[in-house]
Amino acid sequence: MKQLSSAQIRQMWLDFWKSKGHSVEPSANLVPVNDPTLLWINSGVATLKKYFDGSVIPENPRITNAQKSIRTNDIENVGKTARHHTMFEMLGNFSIGDYFRDEAIEWGFELLTSPDWFDFPKDKLYMTYYPADKDSYNRWIACGVEPDHLIPIEDNFWEIGAGPSGPDTEIFFDRGEAFDPENIGIRLLEEDIENDRYIEIWNIVLSQFNADPAVPRSEYKELPSKNIDTGAGLERFAAVMQGAKTNFETDLFMPIIREVEKLSGKTYDPDGDNMSFKVIADHIRALAFAIGDGALPGNEGRGYVLRRLLRRAVMHGRRLGINQTFLYKLVVTVGQIMESYYPEILEKRDFIEKIVKREEETFARTIDAGSGHLDQLLAQLKEAGKDTLEGKDIFKLYDTYGFPVELTEELAEDAGYKIDHQGFKAAMKEQQDRARAAVVKGGSMGMQNETLAGIVESSVFNYEKETLESTLSVIITDNERSEAVSEGQALLVFAETPFYAEMGGQVADHGFIKNDKGDTVARVTDVQKAPNGQALHTVEVLASLSVGTNYTLEIDSSRRHRVMKNHTATHLLHAALHNVIGEHATQAGSLNEVDFLRFDFTHFEAVTAEELRRIEEEVNEQIWNAIAVETIETDIDTAKSMGAMALFGEKYGKNVRVVTIGDYSVELCGGTHIKNTSEIGLFKIVKEEGIGSGTRRILAVTSREAFLAYREEEDALRAIAATVKSPQIKEVSNKVASLAEELRHLQKENAELKEKAAAAAAGDVFKDVKEAGAVRYIASQVSVSDAGALRTFADNWKQKDYSDVLVLVAAIGEKVNVLVASKSKDVHAGNLIKVLAPIVSGRGGGKPDMAMAGGSDASAIDALLAAVAENL
């Protein structure tokens, strides 16, 4: 077996499959594109679902990749085990309806065992297979695998919901008896016993059925297009080929661990307690890659995952004695390890470090808040006479404040309290079950559509013409091909079309189809790409249509032109965002509609009003400068050399279209655009908002819609001017400011009068002092306008020794407000109000010295006042 670095393993994998006719697919962004079922790209196949379900036919049915992936449903196990990771790389080879079982197994065995490639010893490899899959068993035997190295496993069948499924065969490497201290041997595999001897390095899924949960597996129908989907973990390959005890002792992690040693002054011991080193090394990789791909820490979704990873790593840093910000210092090491295949980490180093350091600093303050919350919980336990911290409270500390249970346990035990471990585990299990359910829910693929996938007739989109004559080549009705159609809805494919199919955020063209007499025979309501790339026109049929006949295709030019204005304005907006708030503000989605444009981008905070103003001004400057918008077709390498910016989520072939707007914007884009920026006329931002952790959205309008937006604001301003009696609009702001100042002055006077009135009223109230045993108390109904006035009474009461306890009740509107204040050590205000509030059909609580409650039964106020003496 060859001794290879992780970079060499990855490259050899890709080179081998390339030699077998596979196209090398680049690693996709960790943030899924147009796939709401996934929180993260979690496997090599996740980015290829469109090929497997048949919605898109790839140029080459043979694909290989090295795909960065994130899985976070078992975060707690990272660091505890030898092979759990959050961010990992999945090596894969895929066949979309091309080769199948025989080639996949034969080539896989060649890659593993050939001296030209990985050169694994054959006697160290074991394979599991689905018992009913005799074909896989026979193919392994034909490759030279001994029968006792083939293990039938009932679970070797891959399916997640409806869609592609099939048996799988897994490949294991035997690391020897040193990793099998009880000498259990092959039973470890046969009985699926967790072990460190037989390491799964590769899984080959033979996707040949359409899974249907409504029928038994034996009745699944064969897929029209059988596929191969494989996955091999780079981290596991590296551990085996580098002779490492765990994945963490490989060149993918050890440089990070060495840096942590320097920062902590502690030494990593592979045989000792090294969990904290492993957690930090794993989590900073995930953080660096995810932030580099546009995800940012936050309170929900992906952002919450990143925040949780960072906080867990920081707490493990503290366990190693690192009490200052440190994670951001490890970003450069991650980048250096991965530079050969992922140069973007070092390219975005400054931004990633900034976000990580900022989040670390925020968490330092959060730790203080968490410590304060724990102190409160322990104080409540002491007051209640309890000795155990409940599991739900431990979980809240863990989940909300990022406190590891070990830290909570340490602090609680130092204070003399026990820990409810079972309650914590139950709360943790509930969260894990929810996470796993979400993963399962989002893992399935769509069903293949054999009819659409079978369209092979060519169709060309004409960018230049808005009307042209073309031959109708395909008609589909009710998911079946037809020779003619005379009513209803149909899908049509033409040899050539001027209709733009929805793509790249630009909506589809609408328009009409006319016969040779000029009569409209169909209305086009949508255009989408067929699996093989043809424009698939959705039409409302008005008269007879037949295959092989020529028709005139005419788009709605007015609609197209309005969409083009918005699309071109999106390019200007993207460039302006980079100039004003930074290069990290990359596109995370867009929509170019008829009446507006929507642009989503990565950013870690709200865009300020001043920044929005600068962005808007910059875009309009480019419009007023009347810059030519030019489009050229070239190869991808030339486009990159021109500095062309690729749009988020788009897939580009060898030949691409580059849209340039002077030297202001250069982007790869397949959409349609105006000829000159002056055609946009006017650009206005109407809204900026957050749509998720680290993702912002701008809604904007152009041309006529922008004018109308300004007119609407002007009308509103004129209405305000009339209300405040300002003769000129330009004086409105001064007039409003003057009125606001006048209002503040009147409010201040009003407050002062209220205080004087309250003080006067308090003088009468405080005279009525009663006694209950040794406690002096005042219990009175008062007439006030709001609950705040009750607090003013209490503040005045505190200034002098009127009584030991004060109880005030006020009927405000339909509600009853109750206040209890206490200076007596024998009377707890919070406990007293819990007894009194139910009398007026209310509830409340508070501290020993002050408590408030709300109720709804004003008729019971006298009863409440009478009950005060009974409860003192």
Automatic annotation (TrEMBL):
Localization per Swiss-Prot or TrEMBL: Cytoplasm
Query: What InterPro entries has UniProt attached to this entry?
Result: aa-tRNA-synth_II/BPL/LPL, Ala-tRNA-lgiase_IIc, Ala-tRNA-ligase_IIc_anticod-bd, Ala-tRNA-synth_IIc_core, Ala-tRNA-synth_IIc_N, Ala-tRNA_ligase, Ala_tRNA_ligase_euk/bac, DHHA1_dom
Q: What is its main location?
A: cytoplasm
CC cofactor: Zn(2+)
User: How many cofactors are bound and how?
Assistant: Binds 1 zinc ion per subunit.
Annotated Gene Ontology cellular component terms: cytosol
List, for all copies, the residue spans of the domain called Alanyl-transfer RNA synthetases family profile: 4-712
Residues in a coiled coil are 729-763
Q: What Pfam families would the database entry show?
A: DHHA1, tRNA-synt_2c, tRNA_SAD
Domain comment, in the record's words? Consists of three domains; the N-terminal catalytic domain, the editing domain and the C-terminal C-Ala domain. The editing domain removes incorrectly charged amino acids, while the C-Ala domain, along with tRNA(Ala), serves as a bridge to cooperatively bring together the editing and aminoacylation centers thus stimulating deacylation of misacylated tRNAs.
- Alphabetical list of HAMAP family matching this protein: Ala_tRNA_synth_B
Give the PANTHER family listed for this entry: ALANINE--TRNA LIGASE, CYTOPLASMIC, ALANYL-TRNA SYNTHETASE
Protein family (similarity comment):
Belongs to the class-II aminoacyl-tRNA synthetase family.
As for what it does, the entry says: Catalyzes the attachment of alanine to tRNA(Ala) in a two-step reaction: alanine is first activated by ATP to form Ala-AMP and then transferred to the acceptor end of tRNA(Ala). Also edits incorrectly charged Ser-tRNA(Ala) and Gly-tRNA(Ala) via its editing domain.
Please give the name of this protein. Answer: Alanine--tRNA ligase
The lineage, from the top, is: Bacteria, Bacillati, Bacillota, Bacilli, Lactobacillales
